[in-house]
């Protein structure tokens, strides 16, 4: 199969390697011509995955038309909030029958749309042609070929199975799921919960606090997802609990690290500067996830508090006090 991966940051680059290792002909698109040149010449991506040897068969280009020509699978891994503007340019170049796979974990600001919804809207592609990949997929671990499971979600299950087969590599094991809404929401909301866990970690709190936030974060994600039509069981799976645990526990997570900075007393701007251009999606998607929840009348206290820390001057200390002083209730 011929595949294009649009976005050569951490995940786009690692995912392109998975595709090559699964036996495909892959071209990686980089926004900056100089990065495309370095990847093509050195078979490394020093800006995002230093020390990782990329397969020499992996092509890299700054020319989106060249990357997309003849592609049967197009995977997109750019910051969620830049998807719409980029897709407008890419849409005329997309092969008409290609499967479009979102690797992104965010909800669009302003519209509160999921990434697959933005793809459908801008490209006009039928939902059956659009798939979502989600799960506990820290890019660096996958680039290091550490055994990892993932989920391919598509409303067209035959297509999900075809993608699953195409992506299977010795260290990468995809499962299928027809619940696109649940898989996408699981991925987007866990970034917000990881910010909360990071904030608590930055304040010096330990594993009880983290596990409490993870578990109640999962409850909040399930509540929102169910209200939006997702299958509640999805949140017990890789795109729910799996990704939440990986992201909230790992020092590799940009969202958790971002939260740790906030909890340690840094401002939003300071934390943003420290990411060196790498994306911490939750710091933006907390606003669109909150909007989505408010539209559907769903209580999302952790998301609401994270949004307030990021944008309304709530202090980390006041955030934790707010959680602990909520009215007592039954767990389920
Ligand atoms: N890094 C990871 O472990 C995983 C990331 N994801 C998701 O994948 C998406 C991409 O994440 P990463 O690759 O990690 O991000 P990253 O920050 O490592 O790389 C982002 C890439 O997008 C490019 N970019 C930045 N602004 C752009 C713009 N305006 N237009 C076009 N390209 C632009 C950057 O140059 C870079 O190549 C995010 O939604 C993230 O949540 C999902 C699973 C795992
Ligand atoms: O989505 C991820 C792991 O599944 C990566 O999380 P971060 O974006 O927080 O690094």
UniProtKB/TrEMBL annotation:
It is found in: Cytoplasm. Pathway: Membrane lipid metabolism; glycerophospholipid metabolism. Residues 4-158 form the Glycerol-3-phosphate dehydrogenase NAD-dependent N-terminal domain. InterPro entries: 6-PGluconate_DH-like_C_sf (IPR008927), 6PGD_dom2 (IPR013328), G3P_DH_NAD-dep (IPR006168), G3P_DH_NAD-dep_C (IPR006109), G3P_DH_NAD-dep_N (IPR011128), NAD(P)-bd_dom_sf (IPR036291). The active site is at 190 (proton acceptor). Catalyzes the reduction of the glycolytic intermediate dihydroxyacetone phosphate (DHAP) to sn-glycerol 3-phosphate (G3P), the key precursor for phospholipid synthesis. Belongs to the NAD-dependent glycerol-3-phosphate dehydrogenase family. This is Glycerol-3-phosphate dehydrogenase [NAD(P)+]. It comes from Jatrophihabitans cynanchi.
């Amino acid at each position: 199969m011929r595949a294009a991966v649009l976005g050569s940051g951490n995940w786009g680059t690692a995912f392109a390697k998975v595709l090559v290792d699964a036996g495909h002909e892959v071209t990686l698109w980089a926004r900056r011509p100089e990065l495309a040149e370095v990847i093509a010449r050195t078979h490394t991506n020093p800006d995002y995955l230093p020390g990782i040897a990329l397969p020499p068969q992996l092509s890299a280009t700054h020319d989106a038309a060249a990357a997309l020509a003849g592609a049967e699978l197009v995977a997109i891994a750019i910051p969620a909030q830049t998807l719409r503007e980029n897709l407008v340019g890419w849409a005329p170049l997309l092969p008409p029958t290609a499967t479009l796979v979102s690797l992104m974990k965010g909800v669009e600001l302003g519209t509160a749309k999921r990434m697959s919804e933005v793809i459908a809207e801008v490209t006009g592609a039928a939902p059956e042609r659009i798939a979502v990949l989600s799960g506990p997929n820290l890019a660096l671990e996958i680039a290091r070929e550490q055994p990892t499971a993932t989920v391919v979600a598509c409303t067209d299950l035959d297509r999900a199975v075809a993608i699953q087969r195409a992506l299977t590599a010795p260290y990468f094991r995809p499962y299928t799921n027809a619940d696109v809404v649940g898989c996408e929401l699981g991925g987007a909301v866990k970034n917000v919960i990881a910010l909360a866990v990071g904030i608590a970690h930055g304040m010096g709190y330990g594993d009880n606090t983290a596990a409490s936030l993870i578990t109640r974060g999962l409850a909040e994600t399930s509540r929102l997802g169910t209200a939006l039509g997702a299958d509640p069981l999805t949140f017990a799976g890789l795109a729910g609990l799996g990704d939440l645990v990986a992201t909230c526990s790992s020092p590799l997570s940009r969202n958790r690290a971002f939260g740790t900075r906030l909890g340690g007393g840094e401002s939003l701007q300071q934390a943003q500067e420290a990411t060196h251009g790498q994306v911490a999606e939750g710091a933006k998607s907390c606003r669109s996830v909150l909007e989505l929840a408010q539209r559907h009348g769903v209580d999302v206290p952790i998301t609401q508090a994270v949004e307030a820390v990021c944008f309304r001057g709530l202090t980390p200390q006041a955030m934790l006090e707010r959680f602990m002083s909520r009215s007592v209730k039954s767990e389920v």
